Q: What sequence folds into this?
């Protein structure tokens, strides 16, 4: 994270603490997860106690406190997706990658994450990877999707 | 009803329209802010929006002009407008489309609202998972600033507005406006005790208006076409169109913009393609997973705020979730209660404990381990959760479960008597 990036983010807010979530996002995008050192550094930059950074890091679902796969596969298991077969798609995804939701493949490429409604119920059952939405994804579509994601990551 | 006109989603139908600044301007965009800067004062714009009858589209349905009117007029006092783009209510996906497909319509709405309340800095709080949406908004803000629509001395009028997109990080509760403000201040999203309301003490304890994406997108149209035109759509108490998100067991899930008083039947069967061949509608949630369920007996209910309240439900966020006869309502309850349990911020005991108990009990019934006393236990938990907490999440978790028991109690009893889910063999695979 460059000093220029930090200053650009800080300049948006009259109170520097507001920069905490954007800075955490920025750090995580670059480093993959939030290390203890990173959280201490952010606390010092924003002049808040380190515990308050930890509180925020553990409150929000998107922050990672340990390394995970290079790409997170977010699978919605909320109502509209569940009605149309999300659980079956999740099971197939787990079988295809050989891991359970919450785990990372041995090659460090993918982590499966069960998530709540992604506000894309028109595509249910929906899967999101980075900025991209895939849906509707039935259990039978999972194999092709995984191939597609592997090719993108090659 | 069939001759109704789209308003907010009108430009989505222009062939090749991607929502760039050039395309938005070519389709009449940014004319409303130009008109307002020439012809209006903040007071006259607030009056116009009050007369239009526009009500908030986020869930509560509060009159937008009235909300703006609560902001102190002192020009020395910093004030903030915050656009709530934390769309997370299960079954709702309209704001995502409005942002992805026509971001400048939202930016123009923000300019108008900011002018009305006299603020110089506005934020769009967009849910963290909306990675593409945040990028689109940032690009759109940059483009609008380059053309002089955002920043200093907008269109030579002396009106200034700095506008920033701010990403959340995955927390449903941040859609509640005071939790959103805490989050925007860099804290955990714990709702604040009200009063004071954001209009007097909001972001950084300064007067603040929080408006939903769809609410703001209505503003350019009201300015250009007038309050009378807007209030002629819908009902006297619920004016305008609404963008309904339709999902679940329908043939054509998607967003549908219609006058707010369309019936559930017209929306589902005339527009969303109805049910799949040979299947029958069993239940429908009309306003996102937080609201009480309705049944096929309610299909002629209109979707405006008052009609849905009369039918025993709520208009909520306009998220319509349709379920056919293969749906197990205990399983639905288990899924919905798991969500609220996961999303409870934990500061009020009734919600923190109640959501956990609801989920635990519903799961037990669904897995065939329910006991005869569990149905009364569920109602008792719900009773202890409603109207007793800082924010409405607790009520939002309890009301749906009560409604599933009200209309489908025999299904719950069958699970308990048979020690199994009677739908297990018919669940779709």
A:
């Amino acid at each position: 994270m460059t000093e220029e990036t930090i200053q650009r983010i800080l300049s948006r807010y009259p109170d520097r603490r507001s920069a905490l979530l954007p800075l955490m996002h920025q750090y995580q995008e670059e480093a993959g997860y939030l290390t203890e050192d990173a959280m201490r550094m952010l606390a010092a930059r924003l002049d808040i106690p380190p515990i308050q950074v930890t509180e925020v890091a553990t409150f929000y679902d998107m922050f990672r406190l340990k390394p995970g796969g290079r790409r997170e596969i977010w699978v919605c298991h909320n109502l509209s997706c569940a009605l149309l077969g999300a659980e079956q798609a999740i099971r197939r995804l787990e079988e295809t990658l050989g891991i359970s939701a919450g785990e990372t493949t041995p090659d460090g490429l993918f982590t499966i994450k069960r998530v709540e409604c992604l506000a894309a119920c028109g595509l249910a059952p929906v899967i999101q990877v980075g900025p991209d939405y895939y849906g509707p994804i039935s259990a039978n579509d999972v194999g092709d999707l995984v191939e597609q994601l592997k090719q993108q990551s090659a | 009803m069939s001759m109704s006109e789209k308003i907010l989603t009108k430009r989505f139908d222009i062939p090749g329209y991607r929502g760039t600044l050039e395309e938005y301007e070519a389709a009449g965009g940014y004319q409303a802010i130009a008109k307002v800067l020439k012809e209006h004062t903040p007071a006259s714009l607030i009056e116009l929006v009050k007369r239009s009858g526009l009500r908030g589209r986020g869930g509560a349905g509060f009159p937008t002009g009235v909300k703006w009117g609560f902001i102190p007029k002192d020009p020395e006092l910093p004030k903030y407008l915050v656009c709530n783009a934390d769309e997370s209510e299960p079954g709702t996906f309209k704001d995502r489309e409005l942002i992805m497909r026509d971001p400048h319509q939202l930016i123009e709405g923000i300019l108008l609202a900011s002018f009305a309340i006299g603020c110089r800095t506005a934020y769009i709080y967009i849910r963290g998972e909306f990675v593409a949406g945040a990028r689109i908004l940032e690009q759109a803000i940059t483009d609008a600033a380059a053309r002089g629509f955002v920043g200093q001395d907008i269109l030579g009028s002396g009106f200034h507005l700095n506008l920033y997109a701010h990403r959340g990080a995955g927390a449903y509760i941040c859609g509640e406006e005071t939790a959103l403000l805490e989050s925007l201040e860099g804290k955990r999203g714990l709702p604040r005790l009200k009063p004071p309301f954001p209009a007097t003490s909001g972001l950084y304890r300064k007067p603040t208006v929080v408006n939903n994406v769809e609410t703001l997108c209505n503003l350019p149209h009201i300015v250009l076409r007038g309050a009378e035109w807007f209030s002629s759509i819908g009902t006297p108490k619920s004016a305008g169109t609404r963008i309904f998100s339709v999902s679940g067991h329908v043939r054509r899930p998607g967003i549908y913009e219609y006058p707010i008083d369309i019936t559930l039947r017209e929306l589902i069967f005339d527009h969303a393609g109805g049910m799949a061949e040979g299947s029958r509608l069993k239940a429908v949630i009309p306003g996102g997973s937080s609201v009480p369920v309705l049944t096929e007996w309610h299909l002629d209910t209109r979707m405006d705020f008052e009609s849905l309240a009369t039918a025993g439900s709520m208009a909520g966020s306009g998220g319509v979730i349709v379920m056919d006869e293969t749906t197990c309502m205990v399983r639905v309850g288990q899924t919905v209660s798991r969500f609220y349990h996961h999303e409870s911020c934990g500061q009020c005991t009734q919600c923190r404990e109640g959501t956990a108990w609801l989920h635990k009990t519903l799961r037990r019934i669904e897995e065939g381990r329910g006991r005869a006393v569990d149905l009364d236990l569920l109602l008792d938990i719900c009773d202890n959760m409603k109207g007793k907490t800082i924010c409405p999440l607790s009520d939002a978790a309890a009301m749906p479960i009560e409604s599933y028991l009200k209309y489908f109690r025999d299904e719950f009893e069958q699970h308990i008597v048979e020690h199994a889910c009677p739908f297990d063999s018919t669940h779709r695979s």
In short: Chain B touches chain A through 59 residues (CB under 8 Å). The mean pLDDT of chain B is 96. The domain at 329-418 of chain B is CATH 1.20.1440.230 (de novo design (two linked rop proteins)).
